[in-house]
Every structure is written in C-alpha cells, then in structure tokens.
Amino acid sequence: MTDKFDVIVIGGGPGGYVAAIRAAQLGLNTACIDMNTGKDGKSALGGTCLNVGCIPSKALLDSSKHYHHLQHDYAAHGISVSDASMDVKTMIARKDGVVSQLTGGVAQLFRANKVKQLHGRGRLLADRRVEFTPHASEETRLLTADNIILAAGSVPVAIPNVSYDDEYIIDNAGALDLTEVPKRLGVIGAGVIGLELGSVWQRLGAEVTLLEALPTLLAAADKDISKQAARLFKKQGLDIRLGTLVKSASVVGGEIKVLLEDKSGTSEVHFDRLLVAVGRKPYTEGLLAEDSAVDLNQHGQIEVNEKSQTTVAGVWAIGDCVRGPMLAHKASEEGIAVAEMIAGKAAHIHFDTIPWVIYTDPEIAWVGKTEQQLKEEGVAYRSGSFPFAATGRGLAIGNAPGLVKMLADEDSDEILGVHIIGPGASELIAECVVTMEFQGAAEDLARIVHAHPTLSEAVHEAALHVDKRAIHRGN
Ligand code: FAD
Ligand code: AMP
Q1: Which of 153, 182, 226, 408 is deepest in the core (most CB within 10 A)?
Q2: Is 348 left (phi over 0), alpha (psi -120 to 50) or beta?
C-alpha cells in the first residue's frame, strides 16, 4: 500500500519542521520524515539547530558567561564570592534539558497541527515518491505526495589528515558534550562555531588556541567590527593564530599533535582536545535515488531557483542543503515561503536583509552590506557610528565595549548596512532589519523615539551620526 500526502517534508530541522507546520496550517495533509535520534534513543526533532547547534551552544554560552562574570566582573559591583566552582556535568545536563524541552515541543506542535511525524530515513525516488525506512528497521514503505520539500540540512566538513575520533578530535556535537574542561583546547577554524564554542571552554578555564587559515578574522564582517572583535577576544585570552593552516593531526599517548604551517614555516602544537570547526556541507548522502532527477550544483548543494524549486517539478529544497547562508532563521523563512507557494499563495524572501549573529561576548550582529562591499561596488555612502560606552545604559552595565556602525546611501539616505559589536547586539539588530525591510533611511531611525536609558540609543545615535548630528559624541 502506498501512503499518499499533499506534502512530504524530508528533514525535521528549523527548515523542515517549520515548513511542515505551515503547510498543515494551510490545510495540507503533511508528513515530516526525520531520522534524528536523541540521547534517549527516541526521535528528536529540530535538526542540527535544536540538537547540536544554535540552542545547546547558546545554553552553554549562557552558563559559561555567568561563571566568567562571577569571577571577573562582579567585584566592581561590590559582589564577592569565594570558592566559586563549575560543575560541568550539571551545566551539560541543564543544556540537555533545554534541548529535550524544545525537541519535545516540536513533536507537540506536530500533534497539535496534525503533521504526521515519521521517525526514520527518507529517500526521494522518481515521480514524487519517497522511500521511507523507519528508525531501527530494514523494511521500507513507499509514500507519495503532490509536493516534496527536501530539508536535509548539513553536516560538519572534515579536513584531510584530521580524522574525527569523537573523543580527542571532535566536532560541534562533541564540543557541546565534554564532561570536563580540557586543559588545552585547540580549535581549527575561527569562524562562528569555532569562536562560540572556543569561548565557552575558555571561560571555564581551558587554554584555547584557534588556528585559522585566513589572514583576517571574520572576513565576512565589516572590517571595523572584526578589528574590534580581534582586540576584545585577545584581551579575553583567546589565542587566535591567523594565517595558520592545519596540515594534520594525530593522537599520540593521550594528546593531540597538530602539524601546522604559517609564515614562519611548519611547526607542531599539542592539545588535550581538538575541535574541528572548518565549516559545514550540505547533507545529501542517501537522500536522492539515481532516477530522482534532482540536480546538485558544484558545491554539493541541491540546485534551486529563487523560489526554492529544484530541477524537478513539485520538489522543493530549503535550508542548509541549498544556496545561501547556513542559518536557522533563513531555513525557517524558506520553509514558510515554500509551504505558502505550495498552497497557492505568493511568497518570497529578501536575502539581503537576513541578519547574522555571533553569540560571543560581546555579541556581533549585522545586516546588509559591509563598508568594504560598498567600496568594491562603487556605491557612494555615508557612515555613522556610536560606542556603547558613551550611552548611559552602557555605563550603568559597567562592561559595554563595542559600537554600532550604520551605512546609508549618500543620496537617498536609505540604510544599506548596520554592524554591531556589543552587549545585546543579537536583539538590537532586529530594528535595523525592520527599517531596512521597509527601505527606511538613517533619518527615519534618527527621528524615532528610543527609550532612555537603553542600549538601543546607540543605534539611534549612530543614525544621527550618519548626518553628523549625534548628540553624545563629537561629529
Ligand atoms: P538541519 O537543522 O541540519 O536539519 C536537518 C534534519 O534532517 C536533521 O534532523 C537530519 O537528521 C534530517 N535528515 C537529513 N537527511 C535525512 C533523510 N534522508 N531522511 C530523514 N531525515 C534526514 N544558526 C543560526 O541561525 N543561529 C545560531 O546561533 C546557530 N548556531 C549554530 C551553532 C552550531 C554549533 C552549529 C553546528 C550550527 C549553528 N547554526 C546556527 C546553524 C543552524 O543550526 C543551521 O543553519 C540550521 O539547523 C539549518 O536548518 P535545516 O533545517 O536546513 O537543517
Ligand atoms: P565557518 O565557515 O564560519 O564555519 O568557519 C570555518 C573557518 O575554518 C574558516 O574561517 C576557514 O578559513 C577555516 N579553515 C578551513 N580549513 C582550515 C584549515 N585546514 N586550517 C585552519 N583553518 C581552516
């Protein structure tokens, strides 16, 4: 017997589960196949994001931030604590609790919306058919649907001569589950994941060394922001070695020997744990039968057009397994847009206004173009900036490094990019995204009343500074 649905979603991450819920809301008979299994051996929806990505990393970033503040920042507030200690197992258990609450919440949402949850592996066949192999079973079932959404996500990239062993040489999942603080943690790749997870363990006492092949830190960020970030991370004790290419790693006698190459030649460094965080690649292994006719591009991503349609009619693809930034909110918005298009509605996403956030301390967030991009494109722009330390709220907090930088078109004043490093950057970026979505100008933000005293006043002052009329700084 063949089960027939209106929509089958393969993958239950933030792309797939959101697409499934939206499709069901729109009255479509929807199934979501996801093969992920949690620590309890049961299905765990939510994909990379909920299980081994966004959420657990933020849980550990918060725990480690509390511990770090307790040791380094509270004395200035008159708070002193003796014998502060960190129980790593409790921290990890709290993180696991947050994860299971959220993954269970998605299952509940599926039930509430009547999405059929299928725990197991899905494989796309020809003619909009899907082969479903239930978890821990060899038997397969054939399903069909009018529309199929591929949302298979991504997996960590491996580099030559560095093999994961899940004990010494680990990926993001391993770094989120360490049971004790390593004395020396090496991190290959000073990108978002390397910086966030490196920060967690550094705050808890590890000596953290980040080995980064590129000559600049956070090359995709605005250069003023990445410069500040490099200075602040160094001050925190993160040893970031730029222009350093890892050639190989091997575990010898309980420690990891890493061979690297930098401008002074080849050398060896030793660590107790090594996190490989060199990026992620689309996960399409076993997803597409040979006759499925869905094309991949040269980067191994499922080929899609601007509407997320693959090369096969009725087959769509979203999230980390297609082009565009590997971000949970991008995956979710694509999921919603595709579900709405399937239901006959108009939908589209502005890729230019997708916000980026790095949850280090201070946080880094941006939307739109960097100053270097505008220069390359020959766009005439004006720039305004404002430091958090010059806001009343920043001073009251006590430790508020960083700034807001705003770039606006020289003629029209339309905001082209906003770049923030500082406390609460992840939240502050939202008003900038909204303004850009409405094609707002710096003048618009400058004329909007911002509550006092708040960190958002730095956004307001940066907008005023675009026109060189900031109140609380020299122009
Ligand atoms: P995924 O979340 O990868 O989900 C895909 C799901 O499909 C998985 O459950 C997988 O098991 C399942 N699947 C795959 N193939 C099949 C198959 N054939 N059959 C059945 N099931 C299948 N992004 C942010 O926006 N903010 C952050 O703070 C952030 N932090 C991150 C931190 C870390 C450590 C990592 C690793 C990533 C982070 N990301 C963050 C990125 C974010 O997790 C991804 O962009 C997001 O999860 C992509 O969603 P997705 O639905 O495309 O895929
Ligand atoms: P992201 O793409 O944000 O996950 O960051 C991954 C980082 O890893 C990039 O900045 C890469 O330059 C870096 N990287 C990739 N391969 C190597 C390598 N062999 N040695 C050191 N850094 C690497």
Answers
A1: 153
A2: beta
